[in-house]
Amino acid sequence: MNRKWLGLLIPLLLLILWEGIWHVPDLRMESLSRPKDVALALFRGILDGTIPAATLQTFEAALLGFAVASGIGVVFGIVLGLAPSLERVVGPSVDLLRPVPSVALIPLSLMIFGFGVNMEAAVVAFACLWPVLIITTAAVRNVDPELLNVARVLQMTVADRICKIVLPATLARIAVGLQLALSISLVVAVTVEIVLNPIGLGHSMMSAQQALRFDQMYAQLLWIGLVGWGLSYFSLSFLNKISPMSRSSRKKVSP
């Protein structure tokens, strides 16, 4: 069997098991919709525009938060990587804030922004900031010192050092942090919508559950999984194009 199709084996087995449960009266549950009903609900939701509209709302908040976190994380990561003394000052504050669960900021964000995209994006940005900041700082700190010494000998400006030496040397590892943050952005965005924010896929899924429309709930849960997979796949393809070494770097930093 072609290796690319092996990944479908477990989902297909689960689907067969799911359908099989419906043919055993003692195991059948009303809250576990039949796969056929879930597929029809997903098809109807796409056709009537409710799922695409909710997806756009979730993506708007997730990508806005990701963009803010990426900009701040890369800039401050480069600064902290090039200035170890500053990193020793800022490090304790980072270590204090990093373990705070992003959902704990929902009340504060709601108080500042109210309901909507900005509130959700602020929580997403907080969650996405740390992987970008930490990986960028570590990548810059590990730049070959000889390269930086050459820059000093050539009397290059700070901007030239960053653009011509630091960024090319660290782009592959920074790309790893960006991809990780992008995956986190969707998870946190859906979580905020489930907990509080009345927009997007998370809210739509909870509304279906409260209305006892379990087929719609499972359809939207399946859609979230497909969207997350697609986001990860295409972001990885893009990062591999702009930085061919990102794949090998990702393997090195993965646990």
Describe what you observe in this structure.
Residues 246-255 have low confidence and may be disordered. The chain has 12 helices and no strands. The chain has helices spanning 3-6, 9-21, 35-47, 50-82, 84-97, 106-113, 117-141, 145-153, 158-195, 200-210, 214-242, 246-253. It has a single domain (33-253), classed as MetI-like (MetI-like fold), CATH 1.10.3720.10. With 255 residues, it is mostly helical.
Write a concise synopsis of the structure shown:
By secondary structure, the protein is an all-alpha fold.
Largest sheet geometry? none
Please provide the count of β strands: 0
Taking the alpha carbons of the first and last residues, their distance comes to 29 Å
Question: How much helicity do the residues have?
Answer: over 70%
**CATH fold node name:** MetI-like fold
The fraction of residues in strands falls at under 5%
Shape: elongated
Q: What Rg is obtained from the alpha carbons, in whole angstroms? A: 22 Å
At the fourth CATH level, what is the homologous superfamily?
Answer: MetI-like
Number of domains: 1
Mean pLDDT, all residues: 82
Secondary-structure-based class equals mainly alpha
What string, H for helix and E for strand, traces the elements in order?
A: HHHHHHHHHHHH
